[in-house]
Amino acid sequence: MSSQALSTPRRAGAPGRTAHTSRTGSRRPIGRIIVGIVLAAYAAVSVYPFLWMVSAAFKTNAEVQEGGHLIPHHPTLQTFSDTWNKLDFFDYFLNSVKVTVLTTVLVVVIYSAASYAFSVLEFPGKKWLYRLFLVLLFVPGVVTLLPIVLLESKLSILGTHWGLILPFVNGSAPLAILMLTNSFNSVPTELREAARMDGAGEPRIFSRIYLPLARPAIVTIALLTAIPTWNEYQLTRISLNDPHSYTLPIALQTMQSSNVVQYNSLMAAALIMVVPVIALFLCAQRYFVNGLMGAVKG
Q: Which stretches of the chain score pLDDT less than 70?
C-alpha cells in the first residue's frame, strides 16, 4: 500500500511535465525562425553595398548614374582595364603591397620573439612590462598621431613608406603580444625541457617547437595586421605627399575628389582593393578561427 501511495504522485505529475516540455519545445522553433528572419534581413542590408560596388564596376558610367538595377545590361571589363592602366593604379597597388607585407613580416618576427620571452623566459620587470603592453590596448590611435608625425619629421622619414611601416608595427604590439603570449603559454613545458636536455638552445626551441605549435595565432596576427594596414587612410593621408608613393586608399580618395567622378572606375578600383583582402581571409580562415579560439581560452 505504501509503495503504491508513493508512486501515484509521480505518475500524476508526469503528464504536467510532459505538457510543459511540449509547450517549451514548440516555442523554440518560432524563436529560431524570428532570429533567422532578423539575421537574414541584416545580412541583406549589409551585403547590398558590396553587390552595388561589384555591379557598378562592370557598368559604364552612364549606366551607373541611371541606377535602379544591380545586374548590368551590358557588362564590360573595359573599366578595369582603364582603371589599371590609365590611372597608374598598378603603382599604387605595388606601394600597398610593399607597406602591408613589410609591416606584417616585421610584426610576426618581432612580436613572436617578444611573446616567447614573456612566456618562458625570466627577466627583471617582466610582469610590469607585459601589463604596460596590455594597457596600450585601450589607448586610441588618434592620440598618438601628432607625436608620431613630429617624431618622423625629426627622423627624416616623414613622407616615406617607412614612416608608415614603423608606426603600424608599433601599433600592432599590444594585441600581437597578448595573443601570441597566450598561445605560447599553452605549449606544454615538458616539450621545452626535453629539448633542453637534448642540447637545444632557445633559438632552436623557439623556431622548431613553439612557432609551429602557435601557427593559428601567428596567422591570426598576420591577418589582423595586414588587413588594417592595407586599408589604412588617416596616417597615410597625413604622411605621404608624393603621388608616386601613394597607396590604394589615397588613390581612391584622389579619384573621388576629382572634378568629374567616374563612378564605374571608382567602384572598379574599390573592387580591386577589396579582392586581395577577401582572398587572403578565405585562404587563412581555418587558422584565423582557431587562433581566435586559442586567444579566448588563453
A: 1-28, 86-87, 257-260, 287-298
Q: Give the pLDDT confidence score for residue 268 in this predicted structure.
A: 87
pLDDT at 297: 54
Q: What local confidence, expressed as pLDDT, does residue 1 receive?
A: 45
Predicted confidence at residue 113, as pLDDT, reads 93
Write the CA distances from 188 to 79, 99, 210, 216, integer angstroms: 55, 36, 10, 17
Dihedral sign of CA atoms 185, 190, 194, 196 in order: positive
pTM of the predicted model, to two decimals? 0.79
Burial 94-133 (b: 16+ CB within 10 A, else e): ebbeebbebbbebbbebbbebbbbbbbeeeeeeeeebeeb
C-alpha 180: how far from chain center: 15
| DSSP state letter for 137 | G
Euclidean distance between CA atoms 272 and 287, whole angstroms: 25
Q: 108 Cβ partners below 8 Å, 6+ apart? A: 218, 221, 222, 225
Q: What are phi and psi of 199, to 5 degrees?
A: 95, 10
Burial 189-227 (b: 16+ CB within 10 A, else e): eeebeebeeeebebeebbeebbbebbebbbbbbbbbbbb
